[in-house]
Amino acid sequence: MSRLAGVSVLITGATSGIGRAAALELSALGAQVALVARSRAALRAAGLAVAERGGTAIEVVGDVIDPASARDAVEHAAAEFGSLDILVNSAGTAALGPFVDGAAHQWQAMVETNLLGALYTAGAAVEHLKAAATGPRRTADLITIGSVARYAAKAGTAVYAATKSAVASWSEGLRQELEPHGVRVAVIEPGLVDTALTAGLLRGDRAALTAQDVADAIAYMVTRPPHLAVTQAVLRPMGTRR
Fold it and tell me: By residue range, what is the domain housing residue 25?
């Protein structure tokens, strides 16, 4: 399939979990994908996985919690591809457990990665996305991975849930700012996803989504016609663990 032929995508946190699944899915649809993460070795492995499936990817070492690094990653991808049509903010981290047992560096890491990392990357990408929306595709997309945790924080998720709540509020405000420019802004809020990030939460037959489930939602959003924006998707597992 080539529904995204000629479309350029930047994905943060692209070497594992949802980010990696999104890279494989979107490249399979014909997109050229910029993989952004901190580990050069992990990027190489992700890039090879895309190539083995016939996709096109470039590997960009970058750290989204550093504004300059996030900006450089965006500019590198835009220069390499000639445009930037889609940004997927997938980089994230979680340190779960009682708040009183937590440490300042854990809280800081979640705020910096889950919230500020998305802001820094989006801030660098907005003008490129606005320009892309004037091209043949007649739209551009900015998607951020949130969480259902923002609806009902539970014991042990206080700070993580706070960052995801902030992401949702920011996405909605930005959606209204960029809609007149043809840029669709969306947040995907999955329940428990079976990734390395949630390994400690998967017990017994507890139901969980897969990273591919979320990648499918991303692909659905970005392949809608330009007159249609799916601005929020809440994904919840059903039944027992597969």
Answer: 8-235
- Residue 242 pLDDT exceeds 90: no
Q: Count the domains in the chain.
A: 1
Residue with tokens 């919690």: 65
Amino acid at 204: G
* Residues 108-116, mean pLDDT to the nearest whole number: 98
* Catalytic residue (choose from 120, 151, 160, 220): 160
pLDDT exceeds 70 at position 55: yes
- Residue 73 in any domain: the answer is yes
Phi, psi for 127 (deg, rounded to 5): -65, -35
**160 catalytically annotated:** yes
